[in-house]
Amino acid sequence: MSPAPTVRDAAFDVLRRFGATTVFANPGSTEIALLTDLPDDLEFVLALHEGSVVGMATGWALANDRPAVAILHTTAGLGNAVGALATARVNRAPLVVLVGQQDRRHLALEPFLTGHRLDDLARPTPVWIAEPPRAQDVPGALARAWHEAREHRGPALVIVPMDDWSEPAGVDEPLPAPAKLVRANAAEPAVLAELAEFLGTATNPVIVTGAGADDAESWRGLTTLAEKLACPVWQEAFGARAGFPQDHPQFAGHLPPGREGLRKALSGHDAVLSVGAPVFRQYPREPGQLTEPGTRIAVVTDDPNEAHRSPVDLAVLARPSAVCGPLAELVPAREAGTEKIGRTVELPGAPEAGAPLGPDHVFGLLARRLPQDTVLVEESPSSRPLLHAYVPAREPLGFLSAAMGGLGFGIPAAIGLRMGGLKRPVVAVIGDGSSLYSIQSLWSAAHYGVGVLVIVLSNGGYAIMDKLAVRHGERTAGGGKAPWPGFDEVSVSGLAKSLGCPARRAETYEELESVLNEVLPTLAARTEPLVLEVAVTA
What we know:
alpha/beta; 19 helices
């Protein structure tokens, strides 16, 4: 007679029901009972830091547009991962996160490795947190976590004591979660009519797009809508993903993050339609209103929090993909004016003889060489404006960044994207300072044969912090002197090699061009990672 099913068996059945295939983890002793003799139909992926665990799971989830499973080790593991979980939340990545806990039977005595108030440690980042009252409630909590993560686009946590996994499953109780949850995506005709009137009565409308519109259907609808309105399209500031084809002649660029620049960019427009983007992301704080007087604003988003906090005249809570196409059909075509509404991009060439490489030279080459379907992952704060200026996202999921602003996301996210089954080239552009937050994730890329290209811009310091210090000094009449040192002695390519990851270093334009010409044509099929450290000036 076969043994009675355990909570562990039932939990794996729940994961199979929803199509889970992979678990990302950096486990400890509280997860041994779950992971030992893991079933062969679940792939285990090891990362060497919890931030990398969550970063890789985030990339995997975004590549597949469904929840990824991550496993964290009690207080230490969850604490190390909180920043990465915050990034996943703002990047709208659905994650089911299992957090280990000490044995339930002596939790009251607070033994070694007790996760004291794990729910408080994680808050407010997760979209949902469960601490099942009984071992038998764990499978149901996992099922609900799957739906919560998928519906609310963020990490859902389930905290499980280590002895729960071997308890009887309690199959006499129904699973407290639907086998399938479907959200009605069709936009109501009355809502579409109100949006059409909002745009139709405007004399000079403009569209702002963001991460929530980064899918093929939204791009098609927005492109048609923009062309019918003959209006410019801006990308939100600090956007995690592109919401519109950035090589389109009506793409105007990225909105400034300060209010003065924002008012200037939107000046003259009497109606602003923001799709899949908050209204409006700011940093740092500046005085004044967001727009000029008389400008009406509407937002279309599937994020309830985004809709609820937006200072707009009209908020529509719906998936952009369900709204943009039908709305474009309702809006009458406008005659295009004579003024150019897009942007003009002149790519930089090679530096003058003897001059050092700058980020602009790197990005000019990338703009010329990257295949159209490349997924570009960015984590280089000091040079991000240049990257946006020169390298457009030309297909959905063509650009990915950490919208929350925390470092350590870029490398593991790029790895997770490829592990998620993308058959597209994946290139990460990372600052050398940023790379040090998750450099250990390169071990996972090498061990599991993940063919990503990681371009590290090496200037030997924290350039973004240096620039901020100078600006602060200018405002306060101080010297703007930064107290932190540089780190010229750190070799990112050397660190990569020590982790088993192939690495090369380019110090001239010709060396950089040679490597890109060699690697990029076959990058989509590559099964070995490569770190390309590029020496640049700040």
